[in-house]
């Protein structure tokens, strides 16, 4: 949902404060309220964090952090989960705001869990796909409970190659090559399922 018709620059967005705790993304220069996440979306993000922590330090994981992406107008996204590179973690050290700007290295991986509705689906499958590729993010995972699938997008020569994973299909990740995780495990947020490390 777009909250205003005023077009914001990145600098205006970074200075914006409406006096509430409401969070926003900037989409093509327009503020867009970030709605509360569903309980399942939260469970999936936390589950993936717990899995990723078996491979990397907690200082390389972010939830609720922002990333500036390229586009015709200023756009700032807030992925459900973000895995940083060492270089990006160093660039963010001591920052007053957890935002990966375009002059910083890109994150290694971002995860978006698709919320119900055509607008959300279009944003995650289409717009964010091209924005994250242009930003140079190595992997983009689209977790879609409604379609019962996880799509792992791997950046190759500036474009994402996709692997659609359902059921017991194992997710193949270049960021986490030793990961043994199925689509079902992610979609069920690990409930009653053990993973192999």
UniProtKB/TrEMBL annotation:
Regions annotated as coiled coil: none
InterPro entries: Nuclease_put_TT1808, Restrct_endonuc-II-like, Uma2
Every Putative restriction endonuclease domain range: 11-183
Superkingdom field: Bacteria
GO molecular function: endonuclease activity
Keywords: Endonuclease, Hydrolase, Nuclease
Protein name (database record): Uma2 family endonuclease
Organism, scientific name: Vasconcelosia minhoensis LEGE 07310
């Amino acid at each position: 949902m777009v909250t205003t018709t005023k077009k914001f620059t990145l600098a205006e967005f970074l200075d914006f404060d409406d006096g509430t705790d409401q969070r926003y993304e900037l989409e093509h220069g327009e503020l867009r309220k970030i709605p509360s996440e569903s309980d399942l979306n939260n469970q999936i993000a936390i589950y993936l964090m717990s899995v990723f922590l078996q491979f990397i330090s907690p200082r390389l994981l972010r939830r609720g952090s922002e990333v500036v992406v390229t586009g015709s107008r200023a756009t700032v996204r807030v992925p459900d989960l973000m895995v940083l590179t060492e270089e990006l973690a160093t660039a963010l050290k001591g920052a007053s705001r957890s935002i990966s700007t375009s002059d910083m290295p890109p994150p290694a991986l971002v995860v978006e869990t698709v919320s119900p509705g055509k607008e959300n689906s279009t944003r995650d499958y289409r717009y964010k796909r091209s924005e994250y590729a242009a930003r140079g993010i190595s992997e983009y995972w689209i977790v879609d409970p409604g379609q019962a699938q996880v799509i792992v997008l791997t950046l190759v020569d500036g474009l994402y190659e996709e692997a659609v994973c359902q059921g017991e299909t194992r997710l193949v990740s270049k960021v986490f090559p030793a990961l043994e995780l199925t689509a079902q495990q992610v979609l069920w947020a690990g409930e009653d399922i053990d993973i192999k490390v």
